[in-house]
Amino acid sequence: MVKATTGNKLTLEEFLALPEGDVNYEFVDGFAVPKVSPKFFHSALQRGLLFLIFAWCKGKGRTVAEWAIILRRKGKDWVPIPDVTYISYERLPKSWQLNEACPIPPELVIEIISPDQTMKEFEDKAKDYFEAGVARVWVADPEAMSIRVFLSADKSQVYIDNMTIIDELFPGLELIVRQIFAEAELI
Questions:
Q1: Vertex 92 angle, CA 88 and 97, to 5°
Q2: Is the dihedral of CA 121, 127, 129, 135 positive or negative?
């Protein structure tokens, strides 16, 4: 899918200096590419995931929505904006208190599929995240009520219904897919 851009090629510094507005942009191949405008299922699922992961991560790290991350993709600067990000205090100390994009790869990014997006797009994006140093990628599908957990660029598992997501990378975090969608008030 071809996405509209701002039209002007930018440097990373120019992109990061853009004013905040009603539209979020990701930095891809030198261009500011607008993110898809979230609909209800997307926003509700994002809220549910944030709530559940935030409850688990208190004292361990940060869980935030729509936080730009400065990464490298295919040798170029890349600034995606995942729907949910978790980064431990081990990777980014609690003392880091700057109003800036995340400067290092987080442990977890979660992307939520919107109706006009495909899983193939997110498979490709997951590969880019792993190559950039992100440890885990989850792709949530509100329509299918599933979470696809990428353990690596070429290994993933789809979780549905009463399946529990458990990952050694996140000790103590156990999320039942049905619980996530119930928290989002989608079931």
A1: 115
A2: positive
CA angle centred on 118, ends 113 and 119, rounded to 5°: 80
Report the pLDDT value the prediction gives residue 107, as an integer from 0 to 100.
Answer: 98
Round to whole Å and give the CA distance between 99 and 146: 33
Q: How far apart are CA 103 and CA 87, in angstroms?
A: 11
pLDDT tens string 46-102? 999 999 999 999 999 999 999 999 999 999 999 999 999 999 999 999 999 999 999
Contact 94, 88 (CB under 8 A): no
Backbone angles phi, psi at 139, to 5 degrees: -120, 115
Instruction: Please tell me the pTM assigned to this model.
Output: 0.91
Distinct helix (H) and strand (E) counts, the chain:
4, 12
Which residue shows structure tokens 């590969």? 127
Measured CA to CA, the distance from residue 89 to residue 183 in angstroms comes to 26
User: pLDDT grade, residue 19 (50/70/90)?
Assistant: confident
- DSSP string for 118-142: -HHHHHHHHHHHHHTT-SEEEEEET
Residue 114 to residues 53, 143, 164: CA-CA distances in angstroms?
Answer: 21, 9, 23
DSSP E strands in 8-73: the ranges are 25-28, 31-34, 61-65, 71-73
